[in-house]
Amino acid sequence: MELIDATARFRGTGTVDPKSFRKPFHHLGGTWNENTLRREICAYREIARSRMKDYREGDRNPVVVAVRNGSGFGKTHILTEAPNWLNAKGIYVTYNQGQDLTVDSEHTTAQALILRLILVLEGYSPKECDFALGSEEAAPFLRIPETWLRGLFVSLVQGIGDIAISVDEIRKLPPRAAQVAMSALSNLAAHFYKETHGSMCTVLVSSLNSETFKTQSDRPLIPWIVERPNHTTLDFFAYLLHKEDKEKVKALANALGGGHIRSLVYCFKLIIEEDMNASLKYLLNRMDQENGTNVDASDLIAVRKHVVDSIACRNEIDISQTIEAMSDTNRAVPPCYILKAFEKDGAAVASLRAIFGSFHLYNSPGKQLEEVGKQYDLFRATFDLPVVPGRAEILMPHGVLGDRGWYKDLKFPGKLSESTDALLKVQKIEGSDNCKKQVVATKTRPKAGRYYHPAIGNHPWIDRLFVAVHPTNDQACLVIIQDKVNGTDFPEACRMLQKAADLLSEAHDIQRVLLIVNVIGATEATTAQDKL
Questions:
Q1: Are 424 and 439 contacting, i.e. CB atoms less than 8 angstroms apart?
Q2: pTM of the predicted protein model
Q3: For residues 326 and 299, is the Cβ–Cβ distance under 8 A?
Q4: What one-character-per-residue DSSP string does 41-80 give?
Q5: 431-453 tens-digit pLDDT
Q6: CA 20 to 30 Å from 360, out of 131, 151, 450, 530?
Q7: How does pLDDT run across 294-323, given as a tens digit for each residue?
Q8: Burial of 172 (0-12, 13-18, 19+ CB in 10 A)
Q9: CA distance 278 to 161
Q10: Phi and psi of 477, rounded to 5°?
């Protein structure tokens, strides 16, 4: 072929395995949730197939499958495994890896894309494709009409059955060029289907930003919403560990990684391949080093703003392209990026490390909940964020007139210092013949600026307390919190919390009280809070 002869000097001697482009490349084995992913992509292929029979350029029926997720959430892994799941010949193209992309970004986008596919078939790596297409030798081929190149490509792959084209990191192209590329891929898939009399060319594309997922005619793509990692992900990677190490490493990876698949892989890779018993601090630093290299100061400012807005805003927040490129489908940013964004604020970092670490240090869900709740309060207090997060709902007791907005406006009095003093105690009722006991307030008066987390394990009725203030007149409000409540205990916990509110409000002459119950396993059907 003339193209290959003309650009042969750019072709390396080795073979290219697209799976080697995964970061980090590892041999941990297999793919988490593989059966589900296989079933989903096969279903999307059939959706695309059903639209091929009546395909027309310029209509709006999507035929290209699109994966949108932030950096490190497994897009490249999915794109390089998809051909196996589809039992198809895979052709992988990426615009990543620091390529020049000049010819891909201008008026030759469609021609350059099809030529890349042809070069990949001949064993060229992504960077070799880039060098070849940017050379003088390739210039005549870039002037060939797209329809001719489309026919050339189909003639090269005709007879090998189904194929799967994976195009990674479309966002690297300018917006207009990305639309041209989507149109070229849609038309190429339809032409392949027609010329091969029903063989499928399944096209998958990935991007950090969803705005690139449309063609020149505004034809949308088929969105593939990939399931977020969960506890089964930890089990999947942990099968290679010794039995006595599994739970410890899973807890550590959960603390560090959240739902960020690359972070999780690094955690298990470090333990399995380097046989290191890393501390929480060491692994967090490792996350910073490995995942922080592709973010700059403006990205970190955006992360801080995203975290603050997510807490404070009362309405759905707008997601910038920067945050979309770093977050998953739930708009969650990986812990490593959050830590890096707040690393210059010692108090914030201390709270964040404690939040993430609670999933590692405590086996009890109740203890995790208590510690996360406390550190989340301390974190918000550090940044003058609202006591009641913006999108949280305030429930008023039945029959009681009150202003929900008043409670929504509550502020922390500033940074909080922790106190382990007890606020309630059990004592014998004086004069009682049968040793009856009652709960009474201690001499400790709640003060603004203190965060009460009693040290005694059997503290009556409440777990945590602090004093909030209203910004209009500095009126005080007791915020009383009960953690570790299971669904079966909820009605009784609510009753006890109400008694604590009555007792402390009267003892310290603070009339306003906000009650918070953190329930393990709560659902929308939970109704016991109506009794508060």
A1: yes
A2: 0.82
A3: yes
A4: HHHHHHHHHHHHTT--TT-----SEEEE--TTSSHHHHHH
A5: 666 678 889 999 999 999 999 99
A6: 450
A7: 677 898 899 999 999 999 999 989 889 899
A8: buried
A9: 48
A10: -140, 125
